[in-house]
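Q: Structure tokens for this one, please.
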Amino acid sequence: MKVLGIETSCDECSAAVVEDGEKILSNVIATQIPFHAPWNGVVPEIASRKHTEWIYAVTKEALDKAGLAAADIDAAAVTGRPGLLGSLLVGLCFAKAFAWSRGIPFIAVDHMLAHLYAPRLIINNDTGAENNQARPEYPFLGLLVSGGHTIICRADSFDGITVMGTTIDDAAGEAFDKVAKHYNFGYPGGAVIDKMARNGDSGAFRFPLPSLHKGDHRYDVSYSGLKTAVVNQLEMFKVKKGEHTNEDIAASFQKTAVDILLRALLNAAEDSELTTIVAGGGVAANSSLRSRLAERSDLRCIFPPLELCGDNAAMVAGLGYQYLARGEQSPLNVTAQARVSGFKKKYP
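A: Here is the predicted structure, written as tokens:
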């Protein structure tokens, strides 16, 4: 079965064709970074307008790269939640129209579940075999880290997850973007800080970890305090003598951001006794997070290839296939959801 995937949950306009839920035949991603860079963040109105302008051409390119015509597609899958409402609606309406006009099955899927599915995909190039060998078996711990979400969960199937921990305020990727914006490091913040940190001293500043001492938050994370410390209280946490550089700020911030994430994740691994961790989302591309988890010989840590960490339609098509193979479809009156209950917590 060849499934067309459509992804427009935020600022990436993507279309892909995936065969039998695994083999990527094409995966086209049109980035909007140049249009949002002047504001150092995603502007929802710009994002939805660009999706409207680009979605047809991006889909045609995905079909062309797969060597297929519209008539060769067996089903359509699209991100229905969570994300920017205007952006989601563009992709959702396009996928509905494509499926209706061709009389083929249609399915709307959860964006975060799609990120968790990404490591199961086979890339149609030289790295495909290696990626296929790394496919995780259920159950495992899921680590979903993106600009809008930070989720630690137990995954028992492709759509059966139990959320163990989330953020109580900012998501990990959001914190990277806000720190980068404050210091005018560049956009997108995650990639810029990761690159700067390689030339910085991660011990130049000793930023605090959140205590989260009220209530049961053993697997939860918080980035608001770290963001405040880096942006407004920098000198309070200075350890390095003499002058510091922007690279030192980036390295020290990144170290603490990863510390916060790993503390909650390792707590979840210890309590659940699960030794396989599957990561997904844009922050899963972070080199420090990858290297520090790779040091854990007691854990098997699986990351998607870098090209599948960010938002992409291949993961949507792959996940959509699993629902369709189970006989499930979405009605054409299904609508977009900006948020998903349980993907974020309150404190205490």
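A few notes: The CA atoms of residues 73 and 187 lie 36 Å apart. Residues 126-130 have pLDDT under 50 and may be disordered.
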